[in-house]
Amino acid sequence: MIERTAKDALVRLASQFPVIGVIGPRQSGKSTLTQATFPDKRYVTFDDKNMRELAASNPSDFIMAFPNGAIIDEAQKVPEIFDAIKLHVDRSPFVPGKFILTGSSQFRLRENMTDSMAGRAAFLKLLPFSVRELKTANALPDNAYDLIFNGQYPPLHDSDKHFIPEDWYESYIDTYLDLDVRDQINPNNLSTFKKFIQICALYSGQLLSMDSIARDVGVSAPTIKTWLSILETSFIIHFLEPDSNNLGRSIVKTPKLYFVDSGLLCHLLRLESKEDLLLSRHKGAAVETFAVAELLKSRMNQAKKANLTFFRDTKGFEVDTIADWKRTFAIEIKSANEPETKLSANTKKYLELLKDEEARNAVFYLGDVSMTVNGTAYVGWRDWGEFLK
Predict the structure, then answer these.
(1) How far apart are alpha carbons 263 and 258 in whole angstroms?
(2) Where in the chain is the domain with CATH 3.40.50.300?
(3) Is the pTM value of this prediction over 0.85?
(4) Is 3.20.20.150 the CATH number for 7-125?
(5) pLDDT of 339-360, one tens digit each?
(6) Per DSSP, what are the bridge partners of residue 301?
């Protein structure tokens, strides 16, 4: 089993809050992580019809049957359980990490926990495997494009399974539509929503244009706004907001859209092989999507806010990503295999405008070696998720 970096953050949160919600996209490894982290804690899944009916019939007594707490998987399938946990936590001596809740439906799980357990619960967001996790497990391919094309969902890296990415992603999308989306929209619009996801793939790495997506899909812009929210809430996409420091310039105020997994993106773009990706006009966007996802995982695996933005002014000057962490990092993402000095031009210009002596710049590229040249860090793809720690 591949060790998850988020385990330390989960333990940290569970030492402080009585209830922890582990959320993230389907098949990101939430159940596996919680059971591996708390092997002595009772595990219950509401996928089991008998358990589900028992909990729904008398949620208070059900919770009392676990005096030492429990891991409850698919908790959102019994909404009554949340109030029962709240009352139990309030009436019992304070015990951090007593209940760990996970679920595939992010909408209902988070909504119920937020409504019922304000101040009592913390959340950990778990995305698919990071490069660091695969590297530590000696499961990293030699070529970056193999990983970009295949993606990083755990089932695709399970040595006991032999999934073909194309088949797995098609099943994944169908399951997502049936179990996560169907109760969020008019069921008659499911086929249109699937088309909408495919259209969104064309915009990964670009400024969001709801009007353009609306025209391509054939629905209204307000509908697109609602549907984008569904994709974001379920961790299919992520928005990078524009940098709030305009540095005395006129800046764009539109976010950029990114998919959270490059493999899913490649599938939606109907790329059938790594070679197709290499020849595609979407190659740069796929590489940028891959890099942004690694930065997100680096933060989320520590249970920290992303604090990632991008910079673009109205004259077209742009820096791909601004990471405001311990210090500010201006990062360019390139599909080049060599650390050419010209790749750092925009990040150096940004630092000159920023006038922050602590700020640094970096170029993420697809080479194998990480190095610092003239103050610029050139970071090979295997080190992207670890660079800013």
Answers:
(1) 12
(2) 7-125
(3) yes
(4) no
(5) 888 999 999 999 999 988 899 9
(6) none
